[in-house]
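Supplementary Methods S3. Complex input for the LQZAQKY5-bound model.
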Amino acid sequence: MLEVADALAEVLKHARPLETETVALAPAALGHVLAADIAADIDSPPFPKSLRDGYAVRSADCAAPGAELKVVAEIPAGVVPTRSVGAGEACRIFTGAPLPEGADAVVMQEDAQALGDRVRITDAAVKPRQHVYARGTEMRVGAVVLRAGTPINPAAFGVLANVGKTAVPVYPFPRVGVVATGDELVEAGTKPDPGRIRNTNGPMLTALTARGGGRPRYFGIARDARASARSLIQEGLDASDVLLIAGGVSVGDFDLVPAVLAELGVTFHVRQVRMKPGKPLLFGTAPAGQLVFGLPGNPVSTFVCFELFVRPALRILGGHAEAGPRTIRLPVAQGLAESNDRPTYRPAKLEYGPDGLSVRPLAWSGAPDLVGLQPADALIVLPAGDTRCDCGANMDVVLLG
Ligand SMILES: Nc1nc2c(c(=O)[nH]1)N[C@H]1C(S)=C(S)[C@@H](COP(=O)(O)OP(=O)(O)OC[C@H]3O[C@@H](n4cnc5c(N)ncnc54)[C@H](O)[C@@H]3O)O[C@H]1N2
Ligand code: MOO
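Predicted complex, serialized as structure tokens:
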């Protein structure tokens, strides 16, 4: 049985970034990772730009308060000034407009008094360059503005637009197949007969995948009969970079997944992990290189294994430099006393208080309890053995999502 860190290392050893593709600068590009450096094709701003509505002046003319200047032109944004500002002169200027030759500062209109074709400057100390954004301050032609490996966030959309990039090379979102297993399962639209339950892992895994930077595709429920399970799993494998199979990985007579995967040529790298919930996790690689996860069927076990092992793999396939999961030390907002035979990942909620961040364990009844897990945005890591910690004590916390 592997420790969590060793199992994660095994997973990451087999995860490689996917072949790159080109995406248009449209909302679907959000969250992709750039596969090439992006350089500026222009200076930004492309001209010295006024940051205020007011007057473009020569600061030396305004050394004494109350200076009066002749207003010789008006420059709205988008207009190229045709006249320079001489001694004793000013131009009416608006935010975003190019500063005219000769001027070296802008006075806000609140600090000036319009007097027909003249203006009195009431700003007592006009400094050179005030309210002026110098040409090329944000970026110079040829400078790298976004590095390969940068996740595309909304601000990156703006930067890409500014350098004229309407399509960019990125790592694709991995295609993730989801298969549920078990004769007891019915889909959500059906009322379960006695002895049966609804399939919760299928919908949850598609949502975890979408949140984790993958493109989910649900293949349905594999029944506990080898032939049908085998054909559904094969179908899933053929269309996926990563296949997630929930349930059927433990030691029961109907837990067919390990045998079916072996028949399909999957090589196993992880067969059990010393953790709770999630001990029977399976991880392997298929002959064509797909990553295959057999996630323990209890819904919270499935969830925790996704966060600890699948999401990091999806991040690497999707071109992220950091796999995660992120673990930080945080004080607990409520004391804990538990005994566990394995390191335990306890659903918890982050709390943002005036003294900073803390984490509160949620009421939770174990591996089948999704209602207890649902509000969680963190997992408190309890070491194996007896854990007693008081409110305020620091614990390792895995951040979710
Ligand atoms: N003798 C042993 N029994 C079990 C062991 C063990 O080591 N020895 N491990 C236990 C642990 S830990 C877990 S976790 C489960 C995992 O078992 P499987 O992955 O084989 O999962 P199943 O048996 O198929 O299901 C377990 C549980 O979860 C329910 N389930 C399964 N799939 C879904 C789904 N898609 N939606 C909702 N609920 C689902 C299923 O009905 C079972 O109740 O094994 C322990 N047993
Ligand atoms: O380790 Mo299992 O995943 O607790 O139910």
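The chain is about 20% helix and 30% strand. The chain has four domains: 4-17+173-317, 21-44+138-171, 49-133, 327-399.
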